[in-house]
Design brief:
The protein is mostly helical. It has two domains: 3-197, Fumarase/aspartase (N-terminal domain) (Fumarase C, Chain B, domain 1, Orthogonal Bundle); 205-408 and 419-513, Fumarase/aspartase (Central domain) (Fumarase C, Chain A, domain 2), CATH 1.20.200.10. The protein has helices spanning 12-20, 30-48, 73-84, 94-108, 117-128, 147-157, 172-178, 190-195, 199-230, 239-243, 248-260, 265-269, 281-284, 286-308, 333-361, 363-366, 383-399, 421-453, 467-479, 489-501, 504-513; strands at residues 3-5, 26-28, 88-91, 132-133, 136-138, 162-165, 168-171, 316-318, 323-325. The strands form four sheets. Strands 4-6-7 form a three-stranded antiparallel sheet. Helix 11 (248-260) packs across helix 14, helix 15 runs parallel beside helix 18 and helix 18 crosses helix 20. The two termini are 31 Å apart.
């Protein structure tokens, strides 16, 4: 069944599903179709009256004062796409391009851009046919929108450039023909309407923040397994303590930790004879650190949710009032800041996770066998897993430097402040992937550590961890066995990483321990 696009109700989970699922078609709602047609009628009336409208009867950017003859209107739009398709770098991932397509369709569906319904139909047809434009990842400065990437997208609608179709890279014209779609011939305002917008940076940020929400729970689960492996205390997660600092994320995380560690036999085994007064920060301050990132992710989620359904074209057409307004809704600053914030928040997840990994493999800190192997020397155990985590954390620290604090003027200083949001968004997406790997390594090392800590001090029996930590341990041990002798750890890390990314680990834990915050 096709998902109806109306310009006003697209959600991040819907966008995520559409980006990855080639079997989910979309269609324009009846109300959106009427709104698009109404706005187009206004454009046609203005053309008949030879009105002066930016980008319709004038040039672009610094050429705003150049009047375009009506007979050259269509050539103006075509030239706009040709000149702006000036990207560089590797192609963007298919899921990002598909998300871009949905986002562009959704904003045009609002009916404030003046595009023809039949032009919009071409983009919808391409999406439904599984045609994915090959779009270079570099070139956007994120102010007049992601002009370069969107121009490459529109180029394929015109039958130019290359696309992925049925697992092959082919000429766009050939793919359109195979899908029975006629290339579009752009009319007045349409080229500008199609390339003004934040769809590239929003696509990256939306998909990243969707996975980040799941990661908020997963990192709590991983931390609970680590705590059990290290025989830490859950005392620092007491609700009375956190009520005195009522930050939303901190309190949600504390609730999760109490839930995950409930009924722990490991905890009971050292409750009365533990000489430690309190744990290190990476254990004791889990709610404060995880919670701060949670709150940041929540802010990003809310900002992106608004942007999904916003009109970010220029000029915008107001059919009921019969006016056009030149403005700056295409400016990427809101998403640029959000994406930078997301990257920083995710980096902190990896920072604290890596510190817990170090505590697990460091026998002097953990009380566990050095590098989590009983055959040290002949075997290196989990030694190099921590190296990999450290490397990714270090890379994140470079990537987390905000791009949005920079601005290079363009278009002869007509566009004198640019957001650089496309860079912010791509960095956040890369950081997300790194963090997922670090958390996978924490699961790997924590389960290895728990293999030792769950043995009763009297060695008479195997103790259970808290319900959530135990569930995570059981699930991972179904896929990866205890490391007795050295083996290729890459394979283990990739196995857990797939369980992290596909949601199966989280789903299993929540079935056993209850829904997490």
């Amino acid at each position: 069944m096709a998902i109806s696009i109306d310009g006003n109700s697209l959600t991040i989970p819907q966008l995520y599903a559409l980006a990855y699922n080639y079997n989910k078609p979309i269609r324009l709602s009846g109300s959106a179709l009427r709104a698009v047609a109404q706005a187009r009628m206004v454009i046609e009336d203005w053309l008949k009256n030879d009105a002066t409208i930016y980008g319709v009867t004038t040039g672009f950017g610094e050429f705003i004062n150049v009047r375009i003859d009506l007979k050259d209107i269509e050539q103006l739009q075509k030239n706009l796409i040709y000149s702006h398709a000036a990207g560089a770098g590797d192609p963007m991932p298919d899921e990002i391009v598909r998300a871009m397509m949905v986002l562009r369709i959704n904003t045009l569906a609002k009916g404030y851009s003046g595009i023809r319904p039949e032009t919009l139909d071409v983009l919808i047809g391409m999406f439904n046919a599984g045609i994915v434009p090959v779009i270079p990842s570099q070139g956007s400065v994120g102010a007049s929108g992601d002009l370069v990437q969107l121009a490459h997208l529109v180029l394929t609608m015109m039958g130019k450039g290359v696309v992925k179709y049925k697992d092959k890279v082919v000429d766009a014209k050939k793919a359109l023909r195979a899908a029975n779609i006629s290339p579009v011939s752009l009319s007045a305002k349409e080229g500008l309407a199609l390339i003004n917008g934040t769809q590239m940076m929003t696509a990256y940020t939306a998909l990243a923040v969707h996975e980040s929400v799941q990661l908020c729970k997963l990192i709590d689960i991983g931390a609970s397994v680590t705590l059990e492996a290290l025989k830490g205390t859950p005392r620092a997660f007491d609700a009375r303590l956190h009520r005195l600092r009522p930050l939303r994320g901190q309190n949600q995380c504390a609730v999760n930790m109490r839930q995950l560690l409930k009924k722990s036999e490991i905890r009971r085994s050292h409750l009365h004879d533990d000489p430690r007064v309190q744990d290190a920060y990476s254990i004791r301050c889990i709610p404060q650190v995880h919670g701060a990132s949670r709150d940041a992710i929540g802010y990003v989620y809310d900002t992106v949710s608004i942007e999904l359904n916003s009109a970010n074209d220029n000029p915008l057409i107001f059919p009921k009032d019969g006016v056009h307004i030149e403005g700056g809704n295409f400016h990427g600053q809101p998403i640029a800041l959000a994406a930078d914030f997301l990257g920083i928040a995710l980096s902190e997840f990896a920072n604290i996770s890596e510190r817990r990994i170090e505590r697990l493999v460091n026998g002097s800190l953990s009380g566990l066998p050095r590098f989590l192997t009983t055959k040290g020397g002949l075997n290196s155990g989990m030694m190099i897993a921590q190296y990999t985590a450290a490397s990714l954390v270090s890379e994140n620290k470079v990537l987390a430097h905000p791009a949005s604090v920079d601005s290079i003027p363009t278009s002869a200083n007509q566009e004198d402040h640019n957001s650089m949001g496309s860079i912010s968004a791509q960095k956040a997406y890369k950081i997300l992937k790194n963090v997922q790997t670090v958390i996978a390594i924490e699961f790997l090392t924590a389960c290895q550590g728990m293999d030792f800590s769950r043995i009763h001090p009297g060695k008479k029996r195997i103790m259970k961890a808290g319900v959530g930590a135990q569930a995570a341990y059981n699930f991972i041990r179904k896929h990866i066995e205890h490391l007795e002798n050295d083996r290729v750890l890459y394979d283990d890390i990739q196995t857990i990483l797939s369980l992290v990314r596909d949601g199966s680990l989280l789903n299993y834990v929540e079935k056993q321990a209850g829904k997490l915050k």
